[in-house]
Amino acid sequence: MIEAIGLTKRYGAKTAVHNLSFQVRPGTVTGFLGPNGSGKSTTMRMILGLDQPTAGQVTVGGHPFRQLPNAPRQVGALLDAKAVHGGRTARTHLLSLAQLSGIPAARVDEVLGVVGLQDVARRRSKGFSLGMGQRLGIAAALLGDPQVLLFDEPVNGLDPEGILWVRNLMKRLASEGRTVFVSSHLMSEMAVTADHLIVIGRGQLLADMSVTDFISANSADFARVRTAPIDPPRREKLTAALTEAGGQVLSEPDGALRVTGLPLPRISDLAHEADVRVWELSPHQASLEEAYMRMTQSVVDYRSTSDALEGFQPPQQQGWGQHQGYGTPAPPVVQEAPQQGWYAPPPPGQNPYATTPPAGAPAPAVPAAAPAPAPAAPPVAPAAPMAPAAPAVQTTKRDSNEDAR
Ligand SMILES: Nc1ncnc2c1ncn2[C@@H]1O[C@H](COP(=O)(O)OP(=O)(O)OP(=O)(O)O)[C@@H](O)[C@H]1O
């Protein structure tokens, strides 16, 4: 088990990690998520004794890393796949690591086979592709057959087959009772690899919970309802009925309704009672990406200046006639749902991780950034304020050994 208590790291005026406390337990894959620069690598370096905490402590199996007897046999890590002497062959690189830790040479050939590099074992690593380098780094982490494994973005540069392989490897290692702590920016991959998540933003803990709990705590499932296109007035009638029953209704770009706050059978009953023909009634389950974006949108440090989402601007509202696609102009009935790439924050008071609660003030009925609904429209719940998606900017990753030198 890895345990951090009040872990803090400052570099001069910069606080990279602040008062972080968490446990990474054996038998599960724990994902370590956070925007660029949020302190994931710094935390991993402190776990591995490469960085000294400014305050607090982190232990592996109850001991600080540097006090672990024969640490390479107990902890394996991939921090930076490029931290390899390029003039050495894959096998020589692993052999030198093995010799330093008293690991038999036979294990080197074993791990080369595990990561699929057996055929290039005698090639110099400087000629390796990004993916081959990652595999070599993973081989090094597995060398001591350790109980605790740390992987910093292990799927970086891997092809789909390689990504699938890493996923299965992580799961297998966890199923063997090992502690597996893995950082990644690939939410879709984390969703199917990790059981538990630790999420940080600007060096502070945002969440420590199962993937399932994280998604339900930070997203709102909704139902998509599409009415018969020949009947816009009926759509308005249904909107009014849904709203009256306590649902929140937004308009999707294709004219469908996005309904939250009502179960599907209730929506179906209300449509039936309102005598509205429904062509689609489908559940939408939020993804990990959506939940993650909602939680971390306010702690993203690096955002492109050419990003249309910069400055938390809401998407342009477009008229009903442009979107419904049925050729029948009609007045706007409901506000539009956020379009793809936009993630509205959870309703006020429902995000347990919000750093700035509204200080007792009730949330405004209509967010300042959102246009007021048309006066003629039936009462609808206000659309949540829009927020930008993650930055497309890729920041350069620092040498993981920078602080050790
Ligand atoms: N040696 C250092 N000197 C000064 N600042 C540092 C040092 N190491 C890290 N930082 C800063 O600490 C913050 C956290 O960096 P870190 O690399 O841990 O983030 P990260 O979450 O791993 O980011 P990424 O997802 O981009 O890899 C960043 O602002 C970084 O610039």
Automatic annotation (TrEMBL):
Bias (Pro residues): 359-382
A Gene Ontology molecular function term for this protein is: ATP hydrolysis activity
Q: Does the keyword Nucleotide-binding apply?
A: yes
Q: Which InterPro entries match?
A: AAA+_ATPase, ABC_transporter-like_ATP-bd, P-loop_NTPase
> What name is this protein filed under?
ABC transporter ATP-binding protein
Keyword flag Mitochondrion: no
Mind listing the UniProt keywords for this protein, alphabetically? Answer: ATP-binding, Nucleotide-binding, Transport
| Record-stated family | Belongs to the ABC transporter superfamily.
